[in-house]
Amino acid sequence: MGGGxxxxxxxxxxxxxxxxxxxxxxxxxxxxxxxxxxxxGVSGAAIIIERALSGAVGVDLIIAVLSWGTFLLGxxxxxxxxxxxxxxxxxxxxPLVSFFMRLASPEVLSGYFYLAGAEGSxxxxxxxxxxxxxxxxxxxxxxxxxxxxxxxxxxxxxIVTRLFRRIKSSQAMLIIDGAIVILGAFVFKSLVFTxxxxxxxxxxxxxxxxxxxxxxxxxxxxxxxxxWLLIKREIxxxxxxxxxxxxxxGGYTGKKRWVIRVxxxxxxxxxxxxxxxxxxxxxxxxAHRAHEICGEGWEKETP
Length: 303
Hints:
Layout: H1 2-35, H2 41-52, H3 59-78, H4 83-101, H5 121-145, H6 153-163, H7 169-188, H8 191-214, E1 218-224, H9 228-237, E2 244-249, E3 256-265, H10 269-279, E4 284-290, H11 298-301
Antiparallel strand pairs: 1-3, 1-4, 2-3
Helix pairs in contact: 1-4, 1-5, 2-3, 2-7, 3-4, 3-6, 5-8, 6-7, 7-8, 9-10
């Protein structure tokens, strides 16, 4: 039973990382790369190098070199422990980019994804920035939910944090991506392309945050009610959550009251509030956003 559960969990994680990598590759190859938008990451660095080489080497080949180059560098500096998290993306991403780049050709699907030649090229560039950023953010989130990594800048960020302990990985990624975007601004010398690249990066970050944290994001409720015993039973038996009960004194009345504190997922919140008000319509409920929740019992019980 345990072995079957482990196998299922492993396959689920690999599937999430694979699907996430596919979405990232599609967003990059169809929207970001053809539009020449430098949003950071491996694709942004590859676009800059391709421009510096005057197109002598294709972006997809440069991406393959950078992906495997950073993977091998990480293997040397970080050891083999990180390899399982990045290997899937490292293997899949370069060939998927090469494949999807063909969709942006005017000869494929009657030019459906050929935004470079679409009417209203300015609007087409904005669409590419938004859709490309959104897809890359969603793809990264799925890869992270699968316990994997997208490689590239992620690996460089881990190396930086290894060498400089005071720097967090998120800070290192921001510094590296920021440097790539700034370098792109100097190479392309276009305020429009730089702005679109920043917009795309912001959209990507927003989607990553929404998708990745949705399952972990939660609300902490504090419930004051004379029917606290019934409400506590409802929380435990119906929602399979535990709760903390503590006493408080009303500031106006001076009476002792019981307060229930419980943390639930965003999906459970509306139903729980409805149940509380059914038990006690006069219950006083406050809700505070818990940015991320983890720990024993939480992830197992979350539907």
